Amino acid sequence: MKTSTQFITLALTLTAATTAHAAPAAPVFSCCSTEEHQHIARPDDHAPISVMGDHTHSKGGWMLSYRYMNMQMDGMRNGSDRVSSSEVFAANYAVAPESMTMEMHMLGAMYAPTEKLTLMLMANYIETEMDNLVNPAVAGMINGGESGFTTESSGLGDLKVSALYRFYLEDNRKAHFGLGLSLPTGSIDEKDDTPAMGGRQYQQLPASMQLGSGTFDLLPSLTFVQQFDEWSWGSQMNGVIRLQDENSNDYRLGHQFEWLSWAGYNLNEWLGLTGGLSYKYTGELEGDQKDVNLMAPGMRQSVTTAFEENFGGQRIDVLLGVNLLKPSGALAGHRLSLDLRLQLWQDLNGYQLETDSTVTIGWSKAF
Ligand SMILES: [Cu+2]
Question: Which pTM does this prediction carry?
Answer without folding.
Answer: 0.86
